[in-house]
Amino acid sequence: MWGGRFAEGPAAVMREINASIPFDKRMWRQDIAASKAHVAMLATQGVVAQEDAAAISAGLDTVAADYEANGVPDDLTLEDIHMLSEAKLAAAIGPVAGRLHTARSRNDQVATDFRLWVRDAIDQTRTALAALDAALLARAEQHAGDVMPGFTHLQSAQPVTLGHHLMAYHEMIARDATRFADARARMNLCPLGSAALAGTGFPLDRHATAAALGFDGPTRNSLDAVSDRDFAIEYLTAAAQCSLHLSRLAEEFVLWASQPFGFVALSDQWSTGSSIMPQKRNPDAAELVRGHAGRITGCLVSLMVTMKGLPLAYSKDMQDDKPPVFECHDLLGLSIAAMTGMIESATFRTDRMRALAESGYATATDLADWLVREANVPFREAHHITGRAVARAEALAVTLDQVPLADLKAIDPRIDDRVYSVLSVDASVASRTSFGGTAPDNVRAAIRAARGE
Ligand code: ARG
């Protein structure tokens, strides 16, 4: 394609380091679509004759059908998907194929194809996130009133409901979905027509190609259009953030599935056994979701570091933009799907959660709050009194609501038997009615709001 000025072909290693076909063939659909939009516009503008454009367009369909049926060959001599498709087009329709590349460079071509690919990836990710979110909402609804220990420092802190805990992840996932949507809105401009870097003298209608490919319009600066990859970095940023959320949820599943916690039993479908220890049910999928977050973050860092020192406009370093984006998309897709499956099929051990919520003096704050409210005790003093009540419960080896009134009165005579109404874990969660709080009715309202009801 560019051999006119050369007497010798490239060294074998040059060919190999230069070739992106082994990975960029994933963009073949986008490449064909962009070429068809380009040639249709060239014909409308009178740059290419109508019959040549028709032949090229039909030829591109033939190439696409061939890829669909036989896959895309790893032909290193043709460097990349753009050259391969053009070579295949020429093989199918002859020299008229050479008119396709009029007023176009691989620089605007690859920038366009890659935007289309990332846009598709974002759409797929948002569909997958919607399924994950639906699973979270369903399980949260089922467990809106089931008490579990809430933790800070992984120490039993205050009782919450399992529904509330799951809805925390709904919030994170919903924000992640908006980050993908934002990235999509910003990237949805078409580089085609920027040519190599300076634009072109041919009378293109860039608005037409942009519209044909579903873009909101053409990019505004040809140098920027062929040389920036911030759209890919933004996608990776949204993906990395999302993977961090998935990783925290996965980590909780790993913890919760352990024997000391026993909060969740993963279904057989989402567990693996051990080849030596017959009793094992390992949460491998959750561990891999946690692990994948590291790799996805690596993808983001990889592209940021690739881009950081590049002068305008295109440099071949930018060919390295695709592997981290493709890898990220695969890893994130698996992670979201696995998390969805685990959530849908897990059995939450609500009896165990309740028992631990009741055993950890998790309603100590409720006792302190009661002293403030009913006995007008300053909070700091109430905190101290409650600390002594907890110590007494510990000494008696009972829960806080099992400490006899006489013992409580011995600690502070202002305590009376009304206090027991706030010391149960159910009373505690039911009292947390502040907006965004864990009261079961709040959780149900949050679920309805999330569903747009
Ligand atoms: N395979 C190249 C890439 O992915 C296409 C652009 C090549 N442009 C060039 N001027 N060599 O970036």
TrEMBL record:
Originating species: Sphingomonas lycopersici
A GO term, aspect molecular function: argininosuccinate lyase activity
PANTHER family from the UniProt entry: ARGININOSUCCINATE LYASE
Enzyme kind, highest EC tier: lyase
The organism's taxonomic lineage, starting at the top: Bacteria, Pseudomonadati, Pseudomonadota, Alphaproteobacteria, Sphingomonadales
Protein name (record): Argininosuccinate lyase
Superkingdom of source: Bacteria
GO cellular component terms given for this protein: cytosol
Family (UniProt): Belongs to the lyase 1 family. Argininosuccinate lyase subfamily.
Domain Fumarate lyase N-terminal: 6-298
BP-aspect Gene Ontology terms: L-arginine biosynthetic process via ornithine
EC number: 4.3.2.1
Gene name of this polypeptide: argH
Domain Argininosuccinate lyase C-terminal: 361-430
Associated pathway: Amino-acid biosynthesis; L-arginine biosynthesis; L-arginine from L-ornithine and carbamoyl phosphate: step 3/3
Keywords recorded for this protein, A-Z: Amino-acid biosynthesis, Arginine biosynthesis, Cytoplasm, Lyase
